[in-house]
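Run log, item B.
One chain of 367 residues. Sequence copied directly from the ordering sheet:
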Amino acid sequence: MKINVMRTDLANAVSVVSRAVSSKASIPALEGILLKAYGSKLTISGYDLEIGINTTIDASVSEQGEIVVSAKFFSEIVRKLPEEVVCLETDERMITYITSGHAEYQIVGMNSAEYPDLPAFEENEGFEIDGEILKEMIRQTVYAVSDNNAKPIYTGSLFEIENKIFKIVAIDGYRMAIRQENVDSEVNSQFVVPGKTQQEVLRIIGGDEEKVYISVGQRNIMFKIGDYSIISRLIEGTFLDYNSTIPKSGKTEVVVNTRLLINAVDRMSLLNSDKLQSPVRCNFVGEEIQLSCTSTIGKANDVISAPINGEEVEIGFNNRYLLEALRNIDADEVKITLNGGLSPMIITPLQGDSFINLVVPMRLANG
């Protein structure tokens, strides 16, 4: 292989693709990235057997070929090269020569035959969505994905598309986030996408005008974002019937300024830490929400004004779960619906029905 490429294009592509490279792999080749030079293009791929990222950049190809190079070393070398034009050349001993201006490197590569193939699947069904909308949908739900591998199905989000409505649902046993949008597609399907994959999609999606094409196979999914493709396994299993967990009505409703409530809960959170979790006690009574928190550190109290419609209720929450729900809703005002002190709090925007969040309460001690 012998090619010339632009350093900026190469550095950007390698930086993104390297995120799918395993740092400690049972197959040595998986600690590298695969370079394939054919025609007038260089294809760059990274893969850790669960998620793969590849992209193609323009190249002046004198000799076609393939090589696997160390992702760590290659990325660092390319990033620090002095000139914009980079020459990559390999020989029969799998040595890769990297030249830019007066800077020259030689690194040992591996035969591309040692690199596992990225998942190949028939694109049975797919749909297109505005990149900025998908980015918002993932951001507003992925925080509720479980990090507990005891139930692998919940380490991903349910992607459901039915009757031109696309939903993303994330559950971790303590909260649930649902985000929906209308899409122009005849596809009706549901599948579970790993949280890690969604985080990579978030990082790659760019400007407002970018479209994302989502292709779904039997066991894999592909997100096509500009010049990048993210291919990931799907999580197999039965996802919770989330509709059955959403109460159809509530005994108490409160409309409150989102920022005021976030700030008040944040103040209560000062008495908590990762090792110490005391509930934030919320007393919905009269025309106000009374907040308090008592821990071994001390005691805190606060009050914010908000007319209470319905029954008075006292309920406690994990401060982090409540804050994450409020911070991701992106609305000036939220409606809170309650069904007593032991049922989940439902948080929705005051206008529209694009977002629903349920937060399970913590049991309060007396007093």
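Observations after the first pass:
- The chain is about 15% helix and 45% strand.
- The domain at 246-359 is CATH 3.70.10.10 (Proliferating Cell Nuclear Antigen).
Flagged for discussion on Thursday.
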